[in-house]
């Protein structure tokens, strides 16, 4: 029996995933968590084969949660389930240790197939993600500036470009206002931008707005 931990801050999403797993042969929705903090606690006390992990959550987001799972040398695999398309986050999360990335509008059969492949020791990679990973390996030399950013800088970039204030970003990411300002300075330098107006234009032009 494949034991699954569902991690998402939306009750409707958790219920929908639980229903899919209940109907799938050999799978058990063993537990749920509403954010990364709760998920990490449950991983310390319970045994799960795979985590279905959302990217955007309060208190501790998917990036930070994935990093702690990987850093803790956990044998539990992680499948990212997100409302964001592959070109926004997938490559970064796969490089950070995720075993697969799936959008939330995927068919239930696709989710079940992804879980089975990952638990069997494989990676789940869609055709779109495969193309992005090939580009990341250097087959596409014209990389956009935002690919030069660290994962945290990328998060801050998207939030700033979506109109969030520094204080709001600090609260969302659970870091200090000073740290956010430091990330902002690094972003402007790396991307050769002068101010927030140019940053916002870049984010809009490249479809990186937070939803």
Helix and strand arrangement:
Blueprint: E1 2-7, H1 11-23, E2 27-33, H2 36-45, E3 50-53, H3 62-71, E4 77-82, H4 86-95, E5 100-103, H5 108-119, H6 127-139, H7 151-161, H8 166-173, H9 177-190, H10 196-205
Short summary of the structure?
This protein has helices at residues 11-23, 36-45, 62-71, 86-95, 108-119, 127-139, 151-161, 166-173, 177-190, 196-205, and strands at residues 2-7, 27-33, 50-53, 77-82, 100-103.
Describe the structure.
This protein has 211 residues and is an alpha/beta fold. It folds into 2 domains: 136 residues, Response regulator (Rossmann fold, 3-Layer(aba) Sandwich), CATH 3.40.50.2300; 61 residues, Winged helix-like DNA-binding domain superfamily/Winged helix DNA-binding domain (Arc Repressor Mutant, subunit A), CATH 1.10.10.10. It contains 10 helices and 5 strands. Strands 2-1-3-4-5 form a 5-stranded parallel sheet, with helices on both faces. Strand 3, helix 3 and strand 4 form a beta-alpha-beta unit. Helix 7 crosses helix 9. The chain is globular and about 55 Å long. The termini are far apart. The mean pLDDT is 87.
């Amino acid at each position: 029996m494949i034991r699954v931990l569902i991690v998402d801050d939306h009750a409707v999403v958790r219920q929908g995933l639980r229903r899919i797993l209940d109907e799938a042969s050999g799978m058990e929705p063993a537990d749920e968590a509403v954010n990364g903090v709760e998920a990490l606690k449950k991983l310390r006390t319970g045994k799960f084969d795979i985590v279905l992990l959302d990217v955007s959550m309060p208190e501790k987001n998917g990036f930070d949660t994935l990093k702690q799972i990987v850093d803790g040398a956990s044998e539990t695999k992680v499948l990212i389930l997100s409302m964001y398309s592959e070109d926004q986050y997938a490559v970064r999360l796969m490089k950070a240790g995720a075993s697969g990335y799936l959008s939330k509008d995927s068919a239930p059969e696709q989710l079940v197939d992804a879980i089975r492949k990952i638990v069997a020791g494989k990676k789940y990679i869609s055709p779109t993600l495969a193309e992005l990973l090939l580009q990341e390996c250097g087959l596409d030399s014209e990389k956009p500036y935002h690919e030069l950013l660290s994962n945290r800088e990328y998060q801050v970039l998207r939030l700033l470009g979506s109109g969030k204030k520094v204080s709001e970003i600090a609260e969302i990411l659970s870091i200090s206002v000073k740290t956010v300002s430091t990330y902002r300075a690094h972003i402007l330098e790396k991307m050769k931008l002068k101010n927030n107006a140019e940053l916002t234009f870049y984010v809009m032009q490249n479809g990186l707005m937070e939803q």
